[in-house]
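User: These chains co-purify. Model them together.
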Amino acid sequence: MIRLQRCADCGRAQYPPREVCGTCLSERLNWDCGDSLPGHVLARTVLHHSNEPAMRARLPLTIGLVQFDAGPVAVCLLADTIVPGDAVRIRFNADALLEAA
Amino acid sequence: MIAHPYDNVALCCPVTEPYVRRSEHDAAWFLARTLQRLLDSAGIEKSAIDGLCVSSFTLHPDTAVGFTQYAGLSPRFLEWLPMGGACGIVALRRAARAVQAGDAEVVACIAGDTANETSFRDLVANFSSFSRDAVYPYGAGGPNASFALIADAFMRATGATREDFGKLAVAQRANAQRNPLALLRGPLTLDQYLASRPISEPLHLLDCVMPCAGADGFLVMPEPRARKLNLPFVRVLGAIERHNAFPDDPVQLRGGWAMDRDALWTQAGIGPRDVQMVQTYDDYPVISMLQFEGLGLCAPREAPDFVRRHDFTIEGSVPHNTGGGQLSMGQAGAAGGYLGLVEATRQVLGLAEGRQVRNAEHALVSGFGMINYDRGLCTAAAVLGRA
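Assistant: Joint model of the two components:
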């Protein structure tokens, strides 16, 4: 399950989420929801160094900038074979992320 | 619209509290030491300081307000400028306008940070709410990962290569070898640069700045006051800042300079070919290339060709980061936002000793700060001129 914030007034999608629309400042925000959402990859890096000891066992880790078809750009973990320009599906996987301190 | 000129403003007394890899001292100590250096340099008493601009990451939980009590200052003008790599030029702009308006007479501008085993990680983990929630959990790569993504996109868009980035890094090291204040002064070849270990591809170790402790500062006052104190000073011919430029660009392939550079050069009354040196904010050479494009030294997407055509050492065709930049001096937190301005001031004053650029009449200085989420939000630039 993944959800992406969308303004009920101006229709603009945004990420990271916030309490008002960054375009029209409306407080009326809804969510686009799905098992995954479509996008494409803008840029890619292979990370060999992490500031967090908990992440180091997982290195190297491939990370990308991915633009949702809806517009916003997210920092994502990428499957190793994905390269910039590829069309992808974006889903949320809490297990893959650094746990909040 | 062109802003009012920075007439009657003197920028003087560039000082540096020497950088060290790590320190037991807190950030306020570095700022206080820098304040003392300013007083010694100007030959004035602390009570003469009636304006203050402060930038620091590790001063937290304090701000400029707490520092007034720490250092026993009672300014009538106070700025806290948490703008990272843009803080030096922004401080100069604020201080200059305060002096012109009579809100302050002598403004001390200082930036600095301490560094220890955990300070950098703590800073990166909580750098902003967007990065804490939407960047850091994805591998905790910090600024290396964020800039690697920008570098990857920039290389794809422009054809820039690691050799281009390396040429800048190698030239800066050559410049640093002539600067006793630089922490990294060992010889560096392009082969060594290329062979350094990957950190966040395409960035390798020698693309990255070394976090350290230290501080920089300068004074801003009316020209008659500087003359009365017999202080050599430089003039501010033009200065710009911009925040969150081009928010709809999906990746940051240009910074806010592109919005304001015409205003900068018009205000300065000279052009990019009339400066004898360029000081960019170099946390990663790719960002210096964004600044070459943004400030009009070359056209958009042509920074790789510009880098290949020029020599960036002190005697070269475009002397760049003449003290070694952050890549060779170290990144002392917010002082990284002052380093280029302080170096340019020294150069235009003729105080750069073993690394003096010939005929240094004009200098271009640029700042870039604060990867709040996926891009640096603060951009700034200034043109300085000999008085």
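Residues 1-387 of chain B form a domain with the Peroxisomal Thiolase; Chain A, domain 1 fold (CATH 3.40.47.10).
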